[in-house]
Amino acid sequence: MRIANLAGRAVLIDGDRAVDVHTASAGRFGPDPVAIFAEWDAFTDWAATTTDVEVGVAFDRRDLGAPSPAPAQVFAIGLNYRDHAAETGLAAPDAPPTFTKFASCLTGPETDLALPTDTVDWEVELVAVIGREATDVATDDAWSHIAGLTTGQDFSERTSQMAGPAPQFSLAKSFPGFGPTGPWLVTPDEFADPNDLAIECAIDGETVQSGRTAQMIFPVAELIAHVSAVCTLRPGDLIFTGTPAGVGVGRSPQRFLAPGNIVTSSIEGIGPLVQRCVPGAK
Fold first, then answer.
1. Domain identity same for 51 and 111
2. Among 54, 60, 37, 35, which Cα is nearest to 187's?
3. For labelling alongside 73, which of 25, 150, 177, 236 has CA 20 to 30 A away?
4. Predicted confidence band of residue 89 (pLDDT cuts 50, 70, 90)
């Protein structure tokens, strides 16, 4: 199933129509997209048997918000594709490098992206959304804790990221609008193989990143096990799982986003994000 946040209300997506969860469930589940994660098992049991798609309505994609708009925790993984590690001049890691994107940077799938500087970079990523609390889970059990997958962009301001004696990953990746996700959450059963999905980013129609999630050094299940061994994962939490090669900072000459650019990020079986770059406040 596909679950979305439409103008602040939880909906099921059926083709080009949206079914309002609160209405279709006769009030059993509230309209808040955040609340469904607290009742994930009951919600998915109900949604799996819901056939009342006649109440669905057409919708404007610009009204879609982040599928999980208020996660308690947002984790992000660096250097999780060997070709990306190589383009940055770093060795492939032995353990997942982990940082955070602050939740205030999260947005929906179609937005204007205000560029704070002229060194903003792109990183398309598969994002795993937690559906069941996870503490020190085994790799073999990890997928049972995942509500679904969505497309994400880990926009990065490279100047502040590398300022000072130590990299400032979390702040540099958390400017307003630097964490678009969507267009919806897709449950794992919708994929023939959720571990092997095409992933791509284009700027003004030019493909700049193209790979498959099967190329991850640490697959999704291993990331869940790794992070949950330290932090209890809560329903609605996000894990940005890393990006393939093709980012701007790894190019020669380096390339960054400029006002007027349109960034399209897409993952097979999920769908695209579209960010229109605009000048930031001076």
1. no
2. 37
3. 25
4. confident
